[in-house]
Write a structure and sequence with these properties.
Elements: H1 5-17, H2 19-33, H3 38-41, H4 44-51, H5 56-65, E1 69-74, H6 89-99, E2 103-109, H7 115-118, H8 127-142, E3 149-153, H9 159-168, E4 175-178, H10 189-200, H11 206-216, H12 228-238, H13 254-268, H14 279-282, H15 285-298, H16 304-314, H17 321-328, H18 345-351, H19 353-363, E5 384-389, E6 392-397, E7 420-425, E8 428-433, E9 443-451, H20 454-462, E10 470-474, H21 479-482, H22 491-499, E11 504-508, E12 521-526, E13 543-547, E14 552-555, H23 559-564, H24 588-593
Parallel strand pairs: 1-2, 1-3, 3-4, 9-10, 10-11, 11-12
Antiparallel strand pairs: 5-6, 7-8, 8-12, 9-13, 13-14
């Protein structure tokens, strides 16, 4: 299939925009790959330290026999249900590596926090910057520089982007990402949301809410809704950094272990002495565009309009929200998974999953097929699915959709445009996840109600002060203000108001991860209020218009009055100086140095 002209045009403008920085990045990769292997290049004391902890047989192999040595970077902890399965992965990987004539070491670990635990708490202010901390942790692990390739173990929100950024700063290494899969389905996401809304209205108590939450989050594996964690997995598949269709096979199964072993075999196949495919060469502008198309086609997490900008920058590639917006005009919505549908990721997998989506996009000319991946068969191989059998597994082609209410072909999409849109206007630039918002809510025009925190909005809701049409403006939530926390606690009260028939919307310089569900939410507003952004000018009662159809976000105040207004200042209680405790002070430097959301909220540029 011929590549769609819009996809070609966006790719070319990214390539041109990134020409110098990409060339410099590839030059560094070439320089690093021309060196001797670490055990031959380093001093004897360095080498002895590097391998002293290995079993004697492995130590002899890697030093004397010069076999490949694989580095494992793991984000394992058992606080995260999604990462708990990784406990046994290093032993599986080492066993498989030995069977293939190689060795493997756990190079290091990275932190991994659960946003589900920290939502609405001070810990959430560390969440976004944990991404760059994870990237630095991955870099520290790989800095021992004795590895021929790397296996990255991580799944959740900031963990995959952080590992990917770290890996790309070691772009000369062949690298494979290793997923662990979603938990089995529990209480449906729809029923869970209903109980949350009931709790917000005081119709059920903590006991009933706790029971519902524990039925929803009940076992090892990722949460089953299509948030950032599972969007991460879709994007890695589209980038060709996974074993094909490995993302959504549940933990604890024989097939899951076989796919982990296949990841080791896959890495062995792209080492320098074989079909050399370092990650910095795989992740080029075509690969990034493929990830963007997959995100749009599945109505994935809005967080990736921040994270993948940072990922691309790590490979010397410059993308922006205009690129997403242009692609969204031609990439159709092919799946509906909660919150933009009722199905969970297990139903998505059963309906065809990542392989189905990638095949449909390739066949429609909406993804680049001529790309390098970790598999010899290229991106087309990512359309195959693994099937468990006696003594292992086999691959089969993805067939037709197993459920047209979950996955549809590109010829009959849920929507002709992608699930995300860019908004522009005198309130700045923002993004909105339209795939979950009813058509009659794509345009909201109502008076503003300004809040300085999500706690302030929750108190107003509890006091019965929000029973009217309104656009809720929640400011001082950007990267520099407080680390740009996700504002998930706003979803239940706003959903309740919408359910009562009020026309409501959210406008914020914070994040929602697409978890705003069916409430229209203009998020990531840039520039943020603390950086002099126009949200700092908005006052209670100003008429605000959010128009997802036209792609506009405006305050309807006469231009002369608007231009003459002074910006409000961030309340002293919310400033960096007051934000002490729970480790927040350790991230003050990151807040001060963070780029804008559209620039990836990077702290290392």
């Amino acid at each position: 299939m011929k590549l769609h002209s819009t996809v070609d045009r966006v790719t070319e403008r990214i390539r041109e925009r990134s020409r110098d920085s990409r060339a410099a990045y590839l030059g560094l990769i070439d320089q690093m790959t021309q060196r001797q292997r670490g055990a031959d290049r380093m001093g004897c004391a360095n080498v002895a330290h590097a391998f002293a902890g290995m079993p004697t047989g492995d130590r002899f192999k890697v030093v004397a026999e010069r076999v490949p040595n694989l580095g494992i970077v793991t984000a394992y902890n058992d606080m995260l249900s999604a990462h708990a399965p990784y406990a046994g992965y290093p032993d599986i990987i080492k066993h498989e590596a030995r069977s293939l004539g190689a060795t493997a070491q756990v190079a290091g670990g990275t932190p991994a926090m659960c946003d589900g635990v920290t939502q609405g708490t001070p810990g959430m202010e560390l969440s976004l910057f944990s991404r760059d901390t994870i990237a630095m942790g991955a870099a520290i692990a790989l800095s021992h520089d004795v590895f021929d390739g790397a296996l990255m173990l991580g799944i959740c929100d900031k963990i995959v982007p952080g590992l990917l950024i770290g890996a790309l700063h070691f772009g000369h290494l062949p690298t494979v990402f290793v997923p662990a899969g979603p938990m089995t389905s529990g209480l449906s996401n729809k029923d869970k949301a209903k109980v949350r809304e009931q709790a917000a209205q005081g119709l059920v108590g903590r006991k009933e809410l706790m029971e519902a939450e524990q039925k929803a989050y009940h076992a090892q594996g990722t949460c089953t809704f299509y948030g950032t964690a599972n969007s991460n997995q879709m994007l890695l598949e589209a980038m060709g950094l996974h074993v094909p269709s490995a993302a959504f096979v549940t933990p604890g199964t024989a097939l899951r272990e076989q796919l982990t072993r296949e990841a080791v075999r896959t890495l062995m196949g792209i080492l320098p002495q074989r079909r050399f495919a370092p990650i910095g060469r795989i992740v080029d502008e075509r690969c990034i565009v493929n990830a963007m198309a997959a995100l749009l086609a599945t109505g994935g997490s809005t967080n990736h309009l921040i994270h993948w900008v940072a990922v691309a920058r790590s490979a010397g590639i410059h993308i922006d929200w205009d690129d997403f917006a242009t692609l969204s005009e031609v990439v159709p919505l092919l799946s509906r998974v909660y919150p933009n549908g009722s199905a969970d990721v297990n139903a998505f997998q059963a309906a065809g999953g990542t392989g189905f989506v990638i095949r449909e996009l390739l066949d429609a000319g909406l993804m680049h097929e001529d790309v390098l991946t970790v598999r010899e068969g290229g991106l087309r191989e990512q359309t195959r699915v693994p099937v468990e059998g006696e003594g292992g597994f086999s691959w089969q082609e993805t067939g037709a959709s197993g459920d047209l209410s979950v996955c549809r072909p590109a010829t009959e999409p849920f929507s002709p445009i992608g699930g995300l849109k860019l908004l522009r206007g005198n309130l700045g630039r923002a993004v909105i996840k339209v795939s979950a918002v009813p058509d009659d809510r794509h345009v909201i025009e109502a008076p503003a109600r300004v809040f300085d925190s999500q706690e302030q909005l929750q108190k107003a809701f509890s006091a019965g002060e929000m029973e009217q049409d309104m656009v809720c403006v929640v400011r001082w939530q950007g990267p520099r203000a407080n680390g740009m926390p996700e504002l998930h606690k706003l979803t239940p009260p706003l959903a309740v108001l919408q359910g009562k028939g009020f026309r409501v919307a959210l406008v914020t310089d914070g994040r929602m991860s697409g978890a705003s569900g069916n409430v229209p939410a203009a998020i990531h507003v840039s520039p943020e209020a603390l950086a002099g952004g126009p949200l700092a000018k908005v006052r209670d009662g100003d008429l605000v218009r959010l128009d997802a159809n036209a792609g506009t976000l405006e305050v309807l105040v006469p231009a002369a009055e608007w231009d003459g207004r002074e910006n409000a200042t961030m309340p002293p209680a919310l400033t960096v100086e007051s934000g002490r405790g729970m480790g927040r002070e350790l991230f003050a430097g990151m807040r001060r140095n963070a780029t804008t959301a559209e620039e990836g909220a990077c702290t290392w540029l």
